[in-house]
Amino acid sequence: MKPDLMVELAGLKLSNPILTASGTFGFGLEYEPYVNLRELGAVVIKSVTLNPRQGNPPPRVTETPAGMLNSVGLQNPGLAAVSEYYVPELKRRKVKVFASVAGETIEEYGRVAYSLAEAGVDAIEVNVSCPNVAAGGLAFGSDPDTTAAVTARVRAAVGNLPVFIKLGVMGGDVVEIAGAAAAAGASGFSLINTLPGLAIDVRARRPVLGNITGGLSGPAIKPVALWAVWRVYKELRLPIIGMGGITCVQDVIEFLLCGATAVAVGTGNFINPGLTVELINGLERALAAEGISGVSELVGAAHVER
Amino acid sequence: MTYEAEIVTQKKLATDCYRLEFYAPEIALSAQPGQFLMVKTSLTLDPLLRRPLSIQSVDHARGLVKVVYRVVGKGTALLAAKKLGRRLNVLGPLGRGFTMLTNGKFAVVAGGLGMAPLYFLVQRLKALGNEVTVFYGAQNRYQLVLVEQLAGLRVNYVTATDNGSSGFKGTVVDLLREKGLPPVDIVYAAGPPPMLRALGELLREVGMPRTEVSLEERMGCGIGACQGCAVKVHGTEGPVYKRVCADGPVFSAEEVIWE
Lengths: 306, 259
Hints:
A: 306 residues, four-stranded antiparallel β-sheet, B: 259 residues, alpha/beta, Dihydroorotate dehydrogenase B (pyrk subunit), domain 3, 6 helices, 37% strand
């Protein structure tokens, strides 16, 4: 019997649990030569801000052991371009779309989320790793109160649409922050965002990245991500999209076992632009080989005491 | 698209500089001068990302593709260690190449391994019946790694080396200044950023002929999604960042803001 890849994520039915991590998949269309977008569980688009953002000076990416650092600086064409062009293009292709929302103020998060919901996205992911201008540049997601305030504002803006809060593991305890977001109306969580990092050009005696610091992603951070998924699942039992260094089917299964209902492929897309679809097919084969009837059988299964 | 391409030849051209040839008939058929490839250097997760490499030439009939590269780190060192018969995972051809015209006069200005994509261009321009003059500079005569092949194309070329070991003593831009730029339809250039910047200044002095430059930048995806390989250019409402991989790697020299 064919295993059932369908998952229900905060009330949304997805054909499979393979999503794309925001910022690594552009607005989806860039990957059309390599992937039939409709086959994906959902496309999580690049973070959108109210106004277009130019981004940071280059170099913006550099490789590190089993990982990469990036400091793109939220370059994006702004809300109008995304809600009027990219979202309709994806919807026309019958792609499930999760919109990642970013902002400099709580109000900006609300406005952007509202318009994207109006444009017809299937869910909102809230990127709370942006600097909060009103709090001197500290990330919104670094404390429970601000995370809750952003969550509440987005929840108020989008009605019943699923809202996932994307958290890192720096600046505060991830369970505590997730708990605050849950109380403020979060449907679930995207775990984890990049970790802060820095690379040095020894010859130039300078940091490699134009922005000096960047976000670390890729297989190097996978154990940290699994740890965060494990803890949040254990304490809160809310839907989780797991991400951080997924490059093969085994990685997908590890995240599911820790408690993720779906996973997102990020840096892996850069190594193999067709990876997402390969993972969907590979997951189906792996479940069939193990005699597992559906993905839901695996979600959180590693938490069972024996 | 990605291909598993068998390595056919691997040759050391100079210190740290190699030419790799592999069998990839689809790429050989569709690649345009100035386009590039993203090559996996390892089957493991470290090095993680692909390496962008310029296409030096293609052989339609035999389905072969050549790239020339310098060993600068772990990824390229692994590439240089690969033996014949091994398969290489190659993504491409990618990016927008050089403008191709017929019945024209062109100048090509190459610095170091910038000659690799320009060789492909010169080959095609010649095949289209154009008149091409090449200005080719490198640190020393050993680093003029494509000079013999260039001679085989029967184009006019002049060389420059920093130490004067071949041709003009000085940079290729100094050479161009000395010789004077012939009247041409397009100037094509590739090389290290300081050379391209100096070339831009020289060209402005002589009235900015139409010039196309091929740029390099650290890349994440190579297909325009990650916004990693940013280059600052003049936009209609001030400076904006474009993507070297998808908007380039060939840009109009006038457009680029050199920093």
